[in-house]
Every structure is written in C-alpha cells, then in structure tokens.
Design a protein that fits this description.
alpha/beta, 302 residues, 19% strand, Rossmann fold, 8-stranded mixed beta sheet, 10 helices
C-alpha cells in the first residue's frame, strides 16, 4: 500500500512540477512543532507500546543539548541519556540512532527497552534528535545528520567513553550514520559493535522500490546514502534484525543486501529475520524479552 501511495506521489510531481520538487521528505519525515519532550506523558503515536515494567525513573533520565557546527551553521542538538552520566567513564554505552519520522518522543519506548537490557541501568543509552527533528535546530540534511551523531560521540568521549565500550544501534534511517561511523576514521569515535534494525541499502534503492520507476534517485532526493556499499568497510561485529513482512524497506532489496555485503574479516555477525514483523514491529513479533535477549547476547559475545 505504501508503495502505491509513493508511486502516485512521484507520478504527480513528475507530471506537474518536473524537477522543481523533490522527495527528501520521504527520507526525512521530521516533526519540529513540539515545545518540549513529554516522554511517558506523550499522547501521540509511538514506535512500540510498552507496559509499566519498562519504567525508567527520573533520576536516570537526563535531557540536555550540545552544539555542533555543520555546513556553515551552529546548531543546538537535543539529546536524552538514560543512565548515570557519572558512570560513562566505566559503563558500556549504546548510541541509538533513530528512524526518519517525528522526534525522540516517538522512539522513547525503544530507549526504555534498551535501558532494561539485562537489568535497568546496566548500559547507558544515548539518543539524539537529528537537525530539524523535535527540538534540534536546523533543516535535515544527510551531512548534518552525520555531524549531529559525531557531536553525540564527542559528548560521550568528553565524559570518558572509549571506543571499546561504544555500541552503535541504527534503526531504519539511523543505519546510515552507524554504517558511516563504523566504516570511516573521520568520526570522533568508532564503535566496537554495531546493530542495524531494518536498514536500507541506499537512497537509490529506496526511491526505486517505492516509486516503481526506473529513474535515478538523484532525480528525486538530494541525499546519496549507500549503506550497502559503506558496510563493506566495516569490520566490527554486526547484528542485523529485520521484519520479513517489512513493506517500507523490503528485507530482500534492503536488509539482506546490507548483510550480504558485510565483509567481517572474521568478526562475528548474526542475522535475525522475524516472520510477520513489519518495519516498526520487530520487537513486537519477536517478543520484547526475546528481542532484548538477542541484543544483550550480541553485546556480551566475544
């Protein structure tokens, strides 16, 4: 159904506007209308619905901002860290890079899930909003997304985190900065392990899959993300999770391609393909405890 909607949209833009309008909003479906983060009190749609057993107390919730410079702009980036900031110098930390929609309130239940891996507070979890999402300043672009994630790494490094204790987790759009940071040396830190849930192969494949048109993605979008190529330069352990029934990012044309292109050089890799699960519902169909066990087992593996 989503493919048909995108096909209609692409056809309409081609017929009525030529190249003047683009589909970058297909990749950056952000919401910058909020005035504060509501977290547990948020009344809008959320990525997953959790029970009260995943409650995170206020003393472990730290909302803050940090500044970055990107593409000639100084931008203030909103962040949420769950855990004791004073323990970052000794803790293992998960840097969670969220998907393409809304803002951190939408993904807050996921951050709570990761905060409860093993037991509450065993791992610190940092989540940020990319520029133009939520309370983060700017307009979303591929480059300032990378710069915001790098800014998060600088903040963690300033608190005493080292590469061997950094785990990066990318969901959907968030797979791009994770692949980039894990495969290149021009970031402030490099992760020791990566987790990708419902990653996309490239902006080219994403647009072509959705539009069903044999036209280059550059006709529609400015971003040039190519995770399936970037993953070839990653040599740290890799966990891939994807819903078999994902109708937004097909497992066959996206996630499987990324996984197959991963050249581990002997590093551990694991694939978790979840029957019945769509784009957002891998934790639901796998079961929250099983989902957590997969992630925890991967983090603790040698």
């Amino acid at each position: 159904m989503k493919y048909l909607v995108c096909l209609f949209l692409v056809a309409f833009l081609v017929l009525t506007t030529g190249c003047d309008k683009r589909l970058d909003d297909f990749l950056f479906n952000n919401d910058d209308t909020i005035t504060s983060y509501k977290l547990d009190d948020f009344e809008g749609a959320v990525s997953v619905d959790l029970s009260s057993q995943y409650f995170v107390p206020d003393n472990l919730i730290n909302q803050f901002t940090f500044d970055i410079e990107s593409e000639g702009e100084n931008l203030n980036i909103a962040a949420i860290y769950t855990g004791d900031i004073n323990n970052i110098a000794t803790d293992t930390v998960i840097l969670y890079c969220h998907g393409n929609r809304d803002h951190m309130d939408f993904y807050w239940p996921r951050q709570k899930l990761y905060s409860h891996l093993g037991n509450l507070g065993r791992f610190g979890v940092l989540m940020i909003d990319y520029p133009g999402f939520g309370l983060s300043e700017g307009k979303p672009t591929e480059q300032n997304m990378y710069d915001a994630v790098d800014g998060a790494m600088k903040w963690l490094k300033d608190q005493g985190l080292t590469n061997d204790r950094l785990i990066m987790f990318g969901f959907s759009l968030g797979s791009a900065p994770v692949c980039k940071a894990a495969g290149e040396q021009n970031f402030s830190m490099n992760p020791s392990k990566i987790i990708l849930e419902a990653p996309f192969a490239s902006s080219e494949v994403m647009v072509q899959d959705a539009a069903l048109l044999n036209m280059p993605a550059s006709y529609f979008v400015n971003v040039e993300i190519a995770n399936a190529e970037q993953i070839k330069y990653v040599d740290v352990p890799f966990l891939w999770m994807h819903g078999i029934n994902d109708d937004f990012l097909s497992i066959s044309t996206h996630g499987q391609v990324v996984y197959d292109n991963y050249n581990s050089n002997g590093a551990f890799k694991r694939a978790v393909k979840v029957p019945g699960a769509g784009h957002e519902t891998v934790p639901v169909f796998l079961g929250f405890e099983n989902y957590q066990d997969e992630i925890l087992g991967f983090i603790l593996s040698n």
